[in-house]
Specification:
Length: 122
């Protein structure tokens, strides 16, 4: 069984930064994705990475501000959130699968974490 636990969320002022972590138990992670859900909105794609980091994708609203990285030895994936804006507020989820190729679609991921809250004030 694979379990994912997100951490690192919190309250930050606009322009600030946060680092989110996604720690996985058991099996080695392959494809991993980050998604977020703002109040009153559907969950949306944020970033994804292959196991080696050779294939990385970002959603247009976060490209240039967020960075996804991973430490496979620790079976942990990180999402660095920089230059945060109020519209970045939401619950951030990590998702993983045992496939090699990452995806921007929620349905392609089998394992999901419970989420961590990110709140950006103006």
């Amino acid at each position: 069984q694979v379990q994912l636990v997100e951490s690192g969320g919190g309250l930050v002022q606009a322009g600030g930064s946060l680092r989110l972590s996604c720690a996985a138990s058991g099996r080695t992670l392959y494809a991993i994705g980050w998604f977020r859900q703002a109040p009153g909105k559907e969950r949306e794609f944020v970033a994804a990475s292959s196991r080696s980091g050779s294939s990385i994708y970002y959603a247009a609203p976060v490209k240039g501000r967020f960075t996804i990285s991973r430490d496979n030895a620790k079976n942990t994936v990180y999402l660095h959130l920089n230059s945060l804006k109020p519209e970045d507020t939401g619950v951030y989820y990590c998702a993983a699968d045992l496939e090699v190729v990452p995806s921007t679609r929620e349905g392609e991921y089998f394992y999901w974490g419970q989420g961590t809250q990110v709140t950006v004030s103006s």
